[in-house]
Amino acid sequence: MKKFRLFTILLFIGFIANAQEKKWTLQECVEYALEHNISVKQSELDVEAAEIDKLDAIGNLLPGLNGNASNSWNTGLTQNVTTGVLQNQTTRNFSAGVTASITLFDGLRNYKQLQRAKMSKLAAQYSLDKMEDDITLSVANSYLQVLFAKQDLEVLKSQNEVTLEQLDRTKQLVDAGSLPRGDLLEIQATNADEKQRIIIAQNNIRISLISLAQTLLIKDYENFDIVEDDYDIFGTEILDNSVYDIIERAKEERSEIRIAEANKEIAEQNVEIARGAYLPTLGAFVNYNTRETGANRIDYINPPGTTITEIGYVESTGETVVTESQNPAVPISLPPRPFIDQLWLNDGISYGFQLSVPIFNGFATRNQVKRSKVNVRRAEYQLEQAELDLEANVYQAYVDATGAFEAYEAALVAEESQQQAYEYATERFDVGLTNAFDFSQSKVRYENAQREVIRTKYDYIFKLKVLELYFGVPVANLRF
């Protein structure tokens, strides 16, 4: 039993350690965000709601079938359903019916509503696509910020290791009297400054990780971390296209334009639906109904024998004229028939057509048509504005990507130059031809050049991805 408990504890500890060691890749972060992000979930609900509206529109084209039943008790002066005579009584009455109806013509409004519902669902899907694109870019940007912060820290640590080596060597030379004490103090100040920047860089990593975790709706900030991959630069071939080619491609592919176009079509469908109210509405129906009552029924019986009745006399002879007739029927009260028997004896069918012709409704239809036309013009302006905004955004993204590429290339050249200058300064400092201050300044410049290469690299990668999305590259096909 003790062995089993020990095994369980070790297994649990191993599970916790494994959970803490998990590091997220960019692809995992994107997939997790798309699955759990609240904005994405809301957009998915909009798509579901649009699908329900579409089913409603389809249902309007189908026949309607309704059943009804009622059971009531009447006390006092009520009509006897068997005789039609008003009388004081207490009775129970049951009735049931089924009615089927269908709209044969309604100015094509139901058909237009179905077309509008289909377009509304399409617009909702476009909005979901745009939301997923935005979330993907946001996650990618946050992820790259973490990578930049991590690699920035590595640069600072690497440079500080060099500083510590120089500090140890300088201390030995100062103790031997080969270098002035000021050089040692300068190296110590540089080391202290680098330690401070390392602490700041570590805090920046934590802040960047928390920001990314919040984007993913992950609350375990302490154990959240990412895979420290060194992402390459892909997709540079997109810059071979002119900005105008990218703009035209974006107008065909981007969800912003598709949403605006869908909204315009929806507005146009609303005009057609409003115009349908000018036309008559024709419907057909068929109804089956039956009833049953708990009241006693009245029946008539003919008693045996006949009755002789004098109807006159013969004037000339004085003879009496009589007639013989069957005894009149006598009403008798009988208990009600069985429930099922009454239902099939008292049933009936009615059917027909219903025509409704609009004549005057206080200008409501005309005003609705005008209102719908105004909305069409508004949707046209929104589409035009969306195209203008897209052109501006694509042009800005193109300029940003081009500028980021140039900044990255310049940073590489600067890094190479600062590396050579730093190596030269190191050689001079090692032989005592330069002081510690000049050496520290050269080292700082080289360090800053390394950090600038990292910053411009990830900035360039992100801006390339933005441009690729505008060019119509699906989110799943973005290369990092």
From TrEMBL:
<keyword id="KW-0812">Transmembrane</keyword>
<dbReference type="Pfam" id="PF02321">
    <property type="entry name" value="OEP"/>
</dbReference>
<comment type="similarity">
    <text>Belongs to the outer membrane factor (OMF) (TC 1.B.17) family.</text>
</comment>
<dbReference type="InterPro" id="IPR003423">
    <property type="entry name" value="OMP_efflux"/>
</dbReference>
<dbReference type="GO" id="GO:1990281">
    <property type="term" value="C:efflux pump complex"/>
</dbReference>
<keyword id="KW-1134">Transmembrane beta strand</keyword>
<protein>
    <submittedName>
        <fullName>HlyD family secretion protein</fullName>
    </submittedName>
</protein>
<dbReference type="GO" id="GO:0015562">
    <property type="term" value="F:efflux transmembrane transporter activity"/>
</dbReference>
<keyword id="KW-0175">Coiled coil</keyword>
<dbReference type="GO" id="GO:0015288">
    <property type="term" value="F:porin activity"/>
</dbReference>
<dbReference type="GO" id="GO:0009279">
    <property type="term" value="C:cell outer membrane"/>
</dbReference>
<feature type="signal peptide">
    <location>
        <begin position="1"/>
        <end position="19"/>
    </location>
</feature>
<keyword id="KW-0813">Transport</keyword>
<dbReference type="InterPro" id="IPR051906">
    <property type="entry name" value="TolC-like"/>
</dbReference>
<keyword id="KW-0998">Cell outer membrane</keyword>
<keyword id="KW-0732">Signal</keyword>
<feature type="coiled-coil region">
    <location>
        <begin position="250"/>
        <end position="277"/>
    </location>
</feature>
<keyword id="KW-0472">Membrane</keyword>
